[in-house]
Amino acid sequence: MTQFTQQTTFYTEDHEWVTVHGDLATVGITRYAAEQLGDVVFVETPEVGKTFKKGDEMAVVESVKAASDVYAPLSGEIIDTNSALADSPETVNEHPEGEGWFCVIKFSDGAETRNLMDKDAYFEFCKGQ
Amino acid sequence: MSMNSQGRPTSPSAPSAPPAIETVSGSRGLQQREDLIFETGSTTKTGVDLPTPKGGMDRLGGVTRKKSVGLPGLSEPEAVRHYVRLSQQNYAIDLGLFPLGSCTMKHNPRLNEKVARMPGFADIHPLQPQSTVQGALELIDQLATWLKTLTGMPAVAMSPKAGAHGEFCGMMAIRGALMARGEIETRTRVLVPASAHGTNPATAVQCGFTVDEIKADARGRVDMEDLKSKLVDSSDIAGIMLTNPNTCGLFETDIREIADLIHEAGGYFYCDGANFNAIVGRVRPGDLGVDAMHINLHKTFSTPHGGGGPGAGPTVLSEALADFAPVPFVVEEDGVYHLVEQRSGEGSDAFGRLCAFHGQMGMFTRALTYMLSHGADGLKQAAEDAVLNANYLQSRLKKVMTPAFDGYCMHEALFSDAFTAEGIETLDIAKAMIDEGYHPMTMYFPLVVHGAMLIEPTETESKAELDRFCESLLSIAEKAKAGDESLKGAPYLAPKRRLDETQAARKPELRWSEPDKIAAE
After folding, report:
1. CB A73 within 8 A of CB A16
2. Nearest by CB to A64, which of B445, B447, B502?
3. For residue B17, what pLDDT is reported?
4. Is the pLDDT of residue A96 over 60?
């Protein structure tokens, strides 16, 4: 099983970031996604204990423009969620890649990170959007 | 100076720039100021003067109201003025071009209203003996015949009360058919293109299916490669829900192939008929391989809608699904019309009924009036004019604005925000349209286009009106292209300026409280 002894951040084509350390992955949406969405007004984070397969709809983020699904970047079990987002969804706009995190997944297969992007690849990907 | 016999001037004196006028009343000329109804009326006042009943017996078993519920009381003229004044702050199809198009409401011909108010249609009750409402039943049957003829489909369920209700009806019929085949447990996946209406995936989930999204291709249509890849293992396919023309305002050119692929996979083809108004009289969905499609009577057949009236979403069904339609439906035998309330035979218990009675009678009357007053050729021309008007707008507006896709559109023209300068958004353009006296277009939808602006003028607008609209929008688009920051403050001339949508969503205030209480908080 792939273990990450060093903290590493990956990005998905659906504009999620995922920071892995050990067998835990913290997930949120990228700054680019937050800017595209505009003011976030509601976040529905997944329940602790739920399990998802990579690519499953895991959370919902709603802005003044649109409601979007957030997909599980890795398969695994939710072990923590950012409950503060319920009362202060603006955190997602203010600190999308920090305090605005959505949840922590205890992932089951580290090899699934293989088709995720690193920072440079994601930057190039956004330029093409 | 011209003057009348009393020496009063009858022509205005030389115009000058108006001073900034603050009025005592708060009204602006003929636009009346209006407070909230709680501030206009008083809880101690009532608009009706009834004597207190004497000697009446309380039959409420001790639950009589003991104190006032705090509703404001107004006299009739106060109540009338309140709502007429509020209506001055609104926009309506009767005031001007409505770029939301038939999605909200297109012109409601007044003849429809006249016929719907005829006592024989307006003053009947669904529980009357059927022998006393033969004309109304015949009208339902005639409308059903028109719908079946126009769509090339053998059956129609008349009772769905709105487009989404019609989707529900069609997908429940598909469920019924899958149950009859013994495959309801295994066939659970419904394909929904990214360019479908937002209600489609919701309906599929509501009916117990899972949604699998198909990508849009660079032409704004179903990505056929993606579709085929989703059908490699097709044992769990229940069907597809496709909107045609789609929400990008484009005809799905591969629709026949899509229908064949779905049928080969053992699934059914639900078509969202919300945009049938673009093709009515030109294309019959039955010829395209559609198994079920709802028809929004307000979109295609001009009934009122959008806060103005109830919807109606009759759903046409193919031979494969006809047995799974809900009850009741009208049948004619020897010139006598009956409502069939119970079904027998295959699928008789698959569905049941969608609502208490037979559907939205008032809308049926209006829709059939529209059909009969236009005739088959007139309906076809309405669809052609809707498409012509949208393409005229597209060709004029694309001189500044960026069309989302190449080529001709159907009944609506879609633009992206690619032409705007950094910092100017679709929202700013929409708000500036209010200053020009127009309702904004559909914005940020469909999601497959960045900063989408979707404009549907409908068939009823004249070239002169289309030109006036284009000139207004082009002047705003030029400003957006040049990065004119003044757009960020629009609207300037509306009764209410730009609202704080973010705070309204994050911290909604859903109750009125007395102004001095708000100040004290």
Report:
1. yes
2. B502
3. 73
4. yes
CB A103 within 8 A of CB A59: yes
Give the tokens for residue B308: 């103005």
> Could you tell me the residue ranges of all domains in chain A?
7-110
Q: How many CB atoms lie within 10 A of CB B5?
A: 5
* Cα distances (Å, whole numbers) of residue A13 to A96, A123, B30: 16, 11, 54
Q: Spell out the domains of chain B, with CATH numbers in brackets.
A: 113-371 (3.40.640.10)
Q: Which residues of B touch A89 (CB under 8 A)?
A: 506
**A65 touching B, CB under 8 A?**
yes
Q: Give residue-wise pLDDT tens across range A23-39.
A: 999 999 999 999 989 89
Cα of A21 to nearest chain B Cα, Å: 32
Per DSSP, the residues of B319-381 read HHHHTTPPBPEEEEETTEEEEE----STTTTT--BSSSSSS-HHHHHHHHHHHHHHHHHHHHH
- Its ipTM equals 0.76
Q: Is B240 helix (H, G, I), strand (E, B) or coil?
A: strand
- Domain A7-110 annotated CATH 2.40.50.100: yes
Preferred mutation among A35, A64, A69, A90 to probe B, highest tally of B CBs within 10 A = A64
